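Key idea: predict the complex, not the pieces.
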Amino acid sequence: MSAAVDYLRGPWHIAVFTWREGIRKKTLVGFLLLSLFVIFGSFFMSSFLNQTTGSGQIETEIDTKLIKDICVATISIFGMLITIFISASVVPNEVENKVIYTVLSKPVRRMQYLLGKFVGIQMIVLANLMLMTLLFLIAIYIRQGEFPKLLLWSALLTYFEFLVVSAFTFAISCSASSAVLPTIGGLFIYLTGNLTEYLKDVSNRSEGTELADVTIGRIADGLYYILPNLQKFSIKTEILGLSSGAPLPPEVAEQIPNLIAYGLAYAVSGYVIAYWIFRRKEL
Amino acid sequence: MKKHPNITLALILLLALSIGSFQGRRLDRLFEAQAFLQWIASVGTNERLGLDGSVGADESEKYEDDTLYSDVVVATEATLLAQLGDDFVAEEGHSALSQALENRTHDAAIYRLVKSAKLAPLRGQFLEKLRAGKLEYTQELSYAAIMSGLEGKGSVSIFNLFFGFRKVAANFIWLQVDRYWHSGLLHRMIPLMKTCVLLDPNFVDAYLLGAWHLGYNVTASMDYTPYPLRTWVDKYQDCLGEQESYYYISIDFLKDGIRNNPRNYKLYFDLGFGMYREKLEDTENAVKYLTYAARLPHERWVPRMLYKSLEENGEYEKALEGWHLNLERFPEHSVSLRSIKRLKGLIAERNAGEAKAKAKATTDVAEREALMSEYRAFAAEAREIWVEMDEPYAAARALRLDAIERAEKGLYLEAVSYLDKGRFEAGSLFVEFSDLIIEFKNAGGLPLSLSEQKQLIREEEGVSCVGMPESVREERVAELRERRKPTI
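Result:
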């Protein structure tokens, strides 16, 4: 037990250091402020709706829906940008600043160093997500007068989506010497992760008898099942449509733990790739 | 690990990817079950409410929803009834499945059944038909349906183009619809409204406001189409003019909304009250949809509108029962108190009329006398209620009783004058009293006014329109004859 605690003490210090360094980054603060501004601004979006008739104002819930949808989109977009940016920059910056040489000259293994960095990144991502979600919940509470508990499930799934992108971006960042390439790579992962469904489409199209068709179809099919599909997390937007007091429908409730396991499996994959690259890196 | 680090890492990576892949497949199966459940809910709602399909008769042949649904009902009936227990009683004419889907109580049991191995072959058939485009009642852009391959072979899912932000896209389209509405560009709103609900099938307010625009605002500037110039439409079993076409577009829009959101009372309410009662004056359908609205969690005005519609549909006892329930929930509610009195008066009037009709029909003198005294007792009861109520509607009803009394004595001119006063006392009775005036004038040989003559012509013409089948015309003629049956 104490061996495990000793082993994790190093990564924990590195994680705390990464967190302290991360929250000072001006770009991250900029993204966060911008997202908070948009979430706050969504409160006034309903002013674009002029739902009046000759006999007065029409009572609808469109404005609440506008706030919910815009807030979730904002959290997803800015949260993803923050995730990609921080995951792409942590290791390359340390290489660039040569801090990594000092750290690795101490009795810290590369595995511990990388674990600390990854945990630190997740702490930053989680803190940002929690801040944005809190403001979102406050906006909905002011509008509806009740605490939208179901939205917490939506936020949880959003985090696991970030976790997958973060792990693979982190893996790319371990092979790069600057943050530019991993940032582009992270954006690419996010885009392709949302388009994995096309591989299924390719597989469906290639049902001919030609060997090339069959081969391409099988490769596409194989890739479809191996690569992460971020669209699977879109169930979070379905949760938004449920009324606050209602319980989670059984079909959605069953998907949540499976999505968490799905996210964790790919996060572990990303982390293993990151370590594989990093352990061979010449430092 | 130390000896063969690469192999160890490769194995760990392979294991993690395998778990991810396994979870991915598992999630796909869950999405398929969800899509299957959504489809069952849509078709089940369709069965329970007897909704018309959203496509024309020529197109409906290519869809196989009903066949597959019947198989699902047969396969699930016994298991479902066993799972639901003895408390669950299925209504006659409806499957247990469609009825269990009405509210959330039985969701878990239905979901267990839907993803069970027993239904695996039917689930497979569902996916096959879904991909072949043979199912009509699918939430076309719902996530589960897309993940299950609704987009079919060789096509690209529009869903992916929005990276999961299609609800936001739907919102911005709605802002444009709102802009068009305020610019008066109503014709431009319709395709955008449809796009909006295609992107977000759970956007209930889009269905509600869209249907309101179609049924009320678009038709407001249209001219009335005289009945003979209207065209018979088989799908709706009605003669449609320009305004009526839009009423039915609005109804179809709401029915699509109900199929996609079967547990939202607002859609049923707007369909029953907003369209069937207010626009088409179809009280039977109004009662049907308002009943479903009242069964779901609702606002307090929903049952009240149901009771009003029940009264208009002639179901006085049910309406009376409803108002009593409402009074229990909201003691001293003035509308309930007034409605209870009014309904008691109407029931007494109806009983009086029935007793008189029976008296007229019988040849037995003693029985006739008994029935006539029954009639007088009911009429006196009704009169007492109307006098006690002391309001324009009640005063008009009392005048009607006076008019009938005069007409029975052959004093038709007096009877007509009572009714004439009565129809201006209470506007809601204008049509009923005008019909009675025509009847009394005809019975007394009094000349009809120009507007009354026109009314009769309109009624004659109202039985047919362009393309109406002969059988329907005959039915309508019979209905008209029934309506013109003498009151006295």
